[in-house]
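Hello again, I could really use a second opinion on something today. I've been staring at a protein lately and its backbone has me curious. Can you walk me through what the tokens say about the fold? Take your time with it, there's no hurry, and the full record follows here:
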Amino acid sequence: MSRLALAVQQYWMAELAELQSLPQAVYDRHPEAIHDLRAAGRRIKSTLRTFRPLVRAPLASAVSGELDWYSHFLGEARDAEVILGNAAGLLSGRPGAEQILIALSAERTRTLLRAESLLTDPRTAALLDQVQELTAEPWRSGRHGHGPRRSDLLGRVAWATSRLAADWSAGPRWGESRAGWQHRVRRRAKSVRYANESLSRQLPELSVAAAGFAKVAALLGIIQDTAVLNRVLAHWPAYLVGEAIAVRTRMAAEAERAVDVAIRNALATSDEAHPRRARR
């Protein structure tokens, strides 16, 4: 097995450890516990999708499908958490805003309790067993003792990177909103980030490339979170939320102006990091 293939398995093992240990932090209501738990699942799912042609097909399909189910409820709880946090930062102390924060806090509690029930579901235990199997013997040729070649893994990262570059360059598809396009590009940026991270144990310079794509995703996240928050606040009287919406809109506009440069820089950094090592 190549060292890069082993690095990917070790990456999955680390994320599995998070999936196993973080539920207690969720029950204890530790800050960011839901975020970290959801992120662990998304890292596994994203890298599994990137390397899917190299992974045993039935296993890849099973784990990916169950992670979709798992992430859905954690996503609801995390979204409510982010909305409340952003709203509190903008509205705390403002006259009349308490009723808004109470309503958002109730929604956060509702979704959190639903996520907690997910964590004790037998289906979650079965998912963790499937991920355990993935970390132990993921590759199509694993039964013969040979995993994918170094060039195979780097080629899949190059594919994910080129897909991001093409989607950004092409702009929204026919009938697709700008927000929908930006959301799709954000997912692509995260995928490239995680793919680089998964190989960085053996190729440390790829951590720099991963950081560049993380910045892209963060900027697009500001835009996406602003759109969601503004939609929620729009249900309340303008005299209560108008200034908050204006502040977030300005933040999103600043992020929008920075995204193109961030993507160009991330792609350039990736180009510098990958070819040298691929030729060795």
Observations:
- The CA atoms of residues 89 and 178 lie 27 Å apart.
- The chain has nine helices and no strands.
